[in-house]
Specification:
By secondary structure, the protein is α+β, with helices and mostly antiparallel strands. It has one domain: Trna Endonuclease, Chain: A, domain 1. A five-stranded mixed beta sheet has the order 1-2-3-4-5, with helices on both faces. The protein starts with a helix and ends with a strand.
Length: about 120
């Protein structure tokens, strides 16, 4: 898979995840928020008091493992730092904040799946 193919797969997964969250009644606050320390795929609000930083992992099959397995303790530490920076930049003071992971698998012809893991960090 080329670099552009991986980017396109990632964009597809983020769109699927955003559509899923929106269908659940969540508001998408930011997509692909970047700073010099990294990127947060989605920032969303399920309600007025909660901000959720969503890491989206997309796979086209299971040959390289499940997407959620790619969210290591090192990745979670980076996401915590990015979340703090986003909150500081936005001057946001939510009552609750957390990190969720959404794993999207395009199925490789077997049908798409989506798994949402809430409160994996923060």
């Amino acid at each position: 898979m080329t670099r552009e193919d991986r980017r396109e797969l990632g964009r597809y997964g983020e769109e699927v995840a955003a559509s899923y969250l929106t269908a659940c009644g969540w508001r998408i606050v930011a997509r692909n928020w970047r700073c010099r320390h990294g990127e947060v795929d989605l920032v969303a609000q399920p309600d007025a008091e909660t901000v959720v930083f969503v890491e989206v992992k997309t796979r086209s099959g299971d040959a390289c493992g499940m997407g959620e397995e790619a969210v290591t303790p090192v990745k979670l530490a980076r996401l915590r730092r990015l979340a703090a920076l986003w909150l500081e930049q936005e001057a946001a003071r939510p009552l609750t904040q957390r990190i969720d992971v959404i794993a999207v698998n395009t199925g490789g012809g077997r049908g798409r799946s989506l798994r949402h893991y809430q409160a994996v960090g923060l």
